[in-house]
Amino acid sequence: MNLAQEHRRALCESAVRAGADAPTLCGDWSVRDLLVHLVVREGRPDVTAAGLVPAGRGYADRVQAEYAAMEFDDLVARVRNGPPRLSPLSIARVDDAANTVEFVLHHVDIVRATPSRHGPAFEEVTHRAMFTTLRRLGRLLFRQAPVGVVVVAPGRGRAALRRPRPGHGSVVLTGEPVELMVYASGRRAHASVEISGDTADTEALAATPLGM
């Protein structure tokens, strides 16, 4: 089982525990809505493409409504079973590259949306994967930030993701790699990250939209 598959399974288990109508960190999406998103994302590229243009949104909405009307257990099974066999995502290496971050973040979306729930806990292999992804995508995730951004994962490393624009300094974000990724994706209020830097710079970063 590759890393993406492990997080796919863990996400599905948490989805079942939370229930179909539980909230998530994805705006007004319920757990059911989040699972529909995952099914469409990796199994229905036609729906994803249609939703990008005004003329196709009606079709996209109808198909997503059909998935949303499924029995919840069947919807969970769709996600658990993964993409169609002919999909590029069925290749383990492609799956890891495309889905590990997706499942880690959406697992957080399910678990941390309910204050009484904690976690999820992540193993070292996941933290390493998240830190590698941050090094690769950090400039994109923080592209709108006027300040420099340095991430520090104690015991794992340090990386400068973005240089400051003229008139600004750098902000240092310290935490475990998964927490840094949660922050960088825009889920700041739900990330356990220590922020240091000049007040003006930390405030500028706090006001900056983050994520893809």
Structure described in brief:
This protein is an alpha+beta fold. The protein has helices at 3-18, 31-43, 45-50, 57-68, 72-81, 92-111, 124-141, 177-184, 199-206; strands at 148-153, 157-162, 170-174, 194-196.
Architecture blueprint of SSEs:
Layout: H1 3-18, H2 31-43, H3 45-50, H4 57-68, H5 72-81, H6 92-111, H7 124-141, E1 148-153, E2 157-162, E3 170-174, H8 177-184, E4 194-196, H9 199-206
Parallel strand pairs: 1-3
Antiparallel strand pairs: 1-2, 3-4
Explain what the structure shows.
Helix 1 runs antiparallel to helix 5 and helix 1 (3-18) runs parallel beside helix 6 (92-111). The model has no long low-confidence stretch (mean pLDDT 93). 52% of the residues lie in helices and 9% in strands. It is globular and about 50 Å long. It has 212 residues and is α+β, with helices and mostly antiparallel strands. It has 9 helices and 4 strands; from the N terminus they run H-H-H-H-H-H-H-E-E-E-H-E-H. Strand 1 and strand 2 (157-162) form a beta hairpin. The longest helix is centred in the middle third of the chain and has 20 residues, at 92-111. It has 2 domains: 3-111, no CATH class; 125-206, Nonspecific Lipid-transfer Protein, Chain A (2-Layer Sandwich). The protein has a 4-stranded mixed β-sheet with strand order 2-1-3-4.
Gross morphology:
globular
Task: Please give the count of helices.
Answer: 9
Strand sequence of the main sheet, in spatial order? 2-1-3-4
Q: Regarding quaternary structure, how should these chains be classified?
A: single chain
**Structural class of the secondary structure composition?**
alpha+beta
Strand proportion: 5-15%
| Fraction of residues in H or I helices | 40-55%
Number of E strands: 4
Mean pLDDT: 93
Order of helices and strands: HHHHHHHEEEHEH
Number of domains: 2
Rg over CA atoms, rounded to whole Å, is 18 Å
Distance between the termini: 28 Å
The low-confidence parts are: none
